[in-house]
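User: Sorry, what's this?
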Amino acid sequence: MLDRVFREEWGRVVASLVGFLGDFELAEEAAQEAFATAAERWPRDGVPGNPVGWLIATGRNRAIDRIRRERTLAAKTRLLELAEAVEDDVTNREEDPFADERLELLFTCCHPALSTDAQVALTLRTLGGLSNDEIARAFIVTPETMKRRLSRARTKIKLAKIPFSVPTASRLPQRLAAVLAVIYLIFNEGYGGRTDLAAEALSLGQVLADLMPDEAEVHGLVALMRLHHGRRQARFADGDLVLLADQDRGLWDADEIAAGRADLHRALALHGRGAYVLQAAIASLQTDSPIDWTEVTALYQELSRLTRSPVVELNRAVAVAESGHPAAALVIVDALELDGYRYLHSTRAELLCRLGRPAEAADAYRRALGLTQAEPERRFLRGRLAALSARRRYEQPAATSSARPRAERGPE
């Protein structure tokens, strides 16, 4: 029971404590103490009728106790005046007396004054409940580096006096875009194999959708993540990456995909036509059989016009190739300035293979391999290179007396 409450309600408990205390670090410590107290008492005394309220009230009391012990810190003594407002039996009421302040916490974590890395780390820590070590592993840094990053982010919020609030209507669209980008960045980090991280992003997106039900782009993002997450069991086989065309659709999560399509319909009903809604529409089409690649190409065309993103153009090129035009797709790819992007080179390699240019394809695969860190993707690229090498040996004409067979030469 406590594990489930922790997974589902950690963010709400921390958000309420941050709103009450105005201090991220103190709020997180109070939340940890509250959950530790629950782990001790609930098995003995039973689960309270309002677990979340109990945790918030306990966390507040623990924080106030700590402030009393440190009352020489004059800046914090103002909180002592709030002590009498916290009643030990408040959680026994039928109605939850605590407001849900997760929306304010999301916007605070994703404030533009913080770096993107800090926004992501702070969101995962405060709303997702991930430990420093878990976040560090997800972003391939040391736990000490992540600890410093989080500490700097909390200090920045305090020194810059970043408000714990939802932006005004005039600033909301831009700030909401930043929040959505952070959540999607977390999802993309998990999409390469860390399904727990992808699930965490989906949970954060759902929280945002619950708190902002009239925002089409929020529902679009949730739809996009659900439609991709629904294919997670088929994306890997024995640890190896499996492309969409080769996936076993029997392994897809039909309920998750249906939920994603329902979220997409909600976004469209709200007249959504933003970037996340368009991407969700594309992801929905890609779950059809057969896939209408002409329609996918058209949607990518609109998305490219909207975002001016070279990555979107790369995806449009893939759709063009799947529509039966690999040469036209290669023209699009070769015009993109994405030399440091691994997927440009892997896409280019696939197109060159289709066009019968194996030597150039091998070079492109090697370039992609050099830019790839995730081991499942590295194995996939090595497998593509090996298959290409074997095909080239098979297709090589017999050697003459004046030259060794190409297959016997060393690496090029």
